[in-house]
């Protein structure tokens, strides 16, 4: 696997409250997480960095218990599901406890989207409106489902997906890490077709998707460029269209 990640302050903000981490445990086993913080300049950064670091530490303990000398993870899907949910719970507790202990951090929180790749299986966990996409062959698919007010309006048929992209209240999220004493992450499992190469996995904050539609993301991911150039182009394109928020993009290239 090849991978690259960039986080950028954007064109309008003074502080970057996004964070990401990528960790490769062995060939074919990789973990990535993107967090988009909220709660003021200090609070947002503290929330996103705490959540990302805690999430990876929790998954470290799990993967360390099940990884084999042959670089596989010997456990069931349900055990991985539970580990991802528990990692989100651990992250939530870490952020919430810091918020409760420091008046300057009261109310801080963060989105969280993660990818655990084991061979050709992609396990995704998310809380909030940071997203994960998979692009393969001639299509791009959003794997995550936003926890946001505009997504709720789409779900009940009040507005269309197209209207949601420009809705004035699209930054209102309905679930976050750290704002409440408990949280439950959504977990998705995606089987990547090993006969169709390559497959691209994109994790990103809404600073990217507020400016670039899925078809534009697909065009950049599928271009004949290096993985570093793909992340750089995603960030620069979003900035050229206004860069109204912090922007984070992690691209993973899977080839069999």
Give descriptors for this structure:
256 residues; 6-stranded antiparallel β-sheet; Phosphatase 2c, domain 1; 5-stranded antiparallel β-sheet; alpha+beta
Please give a structural write-up.
Helix content is 36%, strand content 28%. The protein has a single domain, classed as 4-Layer Sandwich (Phosphatase 2c, domain 1). Strands 2, 3, 4, 5, 6 and 9 form a six-stranded antiparallel beta sheet that branches. The termini are close together. It has 256 residues and is α+β, with helices and mostly antiparallel strands. 45% of the residues are buried.
Summary, kept brief:
The protein has 256 residues and is α+β, with helices and mostly antiparallel strands. It has helices at residues 40-66, 77-101, 149-155, 161-166, 206-209, 214-222, 227-240; strands at 2-8, 18-26, 29-38, 109-110, 112-118, 121-127, 131-136, 139-142, 186-191, 199-204, 247-254. Strands 2, 3, 4, 5, 6 and 9 form a six-stranded antiparallel β-sheet that branches.
Give the name of the CATH superfamily.
PPM-type phosphatase domain
According to DSSP, the number of beta strands is 11
- The backbone outline, from C-alpha atoms, is globular
Low-confidence stretches: none
Radius of gyration: 17 Å
Structural class: alpha+beta
Element pattern in H and E:
EEEHHEEEEEHHEEHHHE
Mean pLDDT: 95
Gap from first CA to last CA: 9 Å
As a percent range, the share of strand residues is 25-35%
Quote the CATH topology: Phosphatase 2c, domain 1
How many distinct domains? 1
Q: In the CATH hierarchy, what is the class?
A: Alpha Beta
Tally of alpha and pi helices: 7
Helicity range: 25-40%
- Major beta-sheet overview: 6 strands, antiparallel
> Mind telling me which CATH architecture this is?
4-Layer Sandwich
